[in-house]
Amino acid sequence: MNQGSDSTSEVPASLWLAEVWQEYCERITRMLAARMPESLQRRMGVDDLVQETYLACGRRINFLREPGELPVYVKMRRIALQTLADMERKHLAAGKRDAMKEVEIAPTDPDRSDYSDAWAQFADTISSPRTHMERLERQATTRRVLQQLPKIDREILELRHFEELSNAECAAVLEITQKTSSIRYVRALKRFRDLLLEEEKRL
User: Fold this and answer.
1) How far is it, in rounded angstroms, from Cα 31 to Cα 119?
2) Which of 5, 49, 52, 145 is the most exposed place for a label (fewest CB within 10 A)?
């Protein structure tokens, strides 16, 4: 079944959503777990947020199934981000921007333990540490690099490496061409590597 087109319009909506959700649920869960603030996690679990996202997808089934170039996962991701914003408003009484209308999705906080570890592990792919002390130093080094790295670079690296989006999906999320997305990724990766190696030379 090609879930990105309307060629499956004869498939019942509930069955179609269940099949698509099964394919993308793990990616949606990882993305929400990384972006969900700790203040909200004290009010509800990640699993609860994922369930709310599934219900929201059911309410926006026509949006998910309508034909177009936008990948189904990217549509589902937008609904997930909107659901996250809705839950923050509901539980934290904080005014949040509408994620469905945002072109630029802000990167997550690299100082959070789960995401800091992810960045440190990403840094390990460039030059792997061998001891526990080196791993601790790598985490500190990575945080310093992230302070220097432009947000636009962090964003594309997070999408590609942590959310595991394809170049086409990144382009759709950022509303840029695939060529521009590819160029931005290569430049961001080079800048991250250069800054990391420069920081390590100072140790």
Assistant:
1) 14
2) 5
Residue bearing tokens 């394809």 = 166
Q: What is the pTM of this model?
A: 0.73
State how many domains the chain has. 2
pLDDT given at position 3:
45
Q: pLDDT (tens digit, 9 = 90+) per residue, 37-64? A: 888 988 999 999 999 999 999 999 999 9
Closest CA to 144 of 116, 107, 115, 185: 116
CB count in 10 Å sphere of residue 92? 14
94 and 159: one domain? no
Per the CB < 8 A criterion, the answer to whether 46 and 28 are in contact is no
- The CATH number of the domain holding residue 164 is 1.10.10
Answer yes or no: do 184 and 135 share one domain: yes
Domain span at 90: 13-101
